[in-house]
């Protein structure tokens, strides 16, 4: 059982996790939901500035204050377990794979403080998961502003804390993930077989997106699109064929508009310097969550990339999240029942080693 959290915790939790299921449903696993560490927030707070976070950099002071009040209102839900478990039950979610809230990347901190903050987040996520085996599974974070320290923390996450996934942002202080300095992180993630969950925090050049929360609505999927575009065209996915990557919010726009990238690959030789296949070949390796709200968009993901590459997500507890993930899947009339079951939880279980009840496997 990999989500044992601390040395010796696996034995304390028992050899097999108990998965709570109701009404004979198929297993449901939420790959996209968040947790925040109070300790890490306290550490980073004196150095936090709006310009450090793209989602706040270009909005008015009034909007920043509104955002701060909203984030504060989530504290009891996002930091604890009681309301989390109750809302999981209400949504029909058996297991949450809890990742840091995107404001807890802390890439703006210096290397040592960034490592300290990451360790706090990771220790707290694994501790709360250990208290609720079978319901909560930890996903970590790493201080990517210091790539070698990120490798060390990734190794600790896997070998000491028992994690099988980490979350990273779409850029590191404005630098593309495909920069050579970050290659050591992706190489280690590939070696360890860790799922890398890529999650945006607003568009880095969001001056035109400052109103109507466009930096979230339009900017977040745009950020993911650009990040994955660089990972493809700069050859990171070419050099690391075993790398497992899941992209939040259904992969942004890139998962639905790949034809243009395949076309430029065919007609402009200068873009083929680092890759030997058309871009869609690399996208076929990736995973995408269902935080897209529209059944047709989820059906399109399945049509393009296969049901095995789509994972249930909610973006809990934010108000931009999906409050009825099981119902959303049920409204995907173009999917077969077996495809819905894979998306609902079996895909995530296979990726992350989550125990699947025997009856679920037979259904």
Round the mean pLDDT to the nearest integer and report it.
89
Determine and state the CATH class: Alpha Beta
Alpha-carbon distance between the two ends: 23 Å
Element-level helix/strand string: HEHHHHHEHEHEEEHEHHHEHHEHEHHH
Identify the strand order in the major beta sheet: 4-7-8-9-10
- Determine the number of helices (DSSP H or I, runs of at least 4 residues): 18
Main beta sheet: strand number and arrangement? 5 strands, parallel
Q: Determine the CATH superfamily.
A: Metal-dependent hydrolases
**Helix-residue proportion:** 40-55%
Please provide the count of β strands: 10
- What name does the CATH topology carry? TIM Barrel
- Based on the coordinates given, report the CATH architecture: Alpha-Beta Barrel
Query: Structural class given helices, strands, pairing?
Result: alpha/beta
**What's the domain count?**
1
Beta fraction of the residues? Answer: 5-15%
Low-confidence stretches: 1-24
General form: globular
Radius of gyration (Å): 19 Å
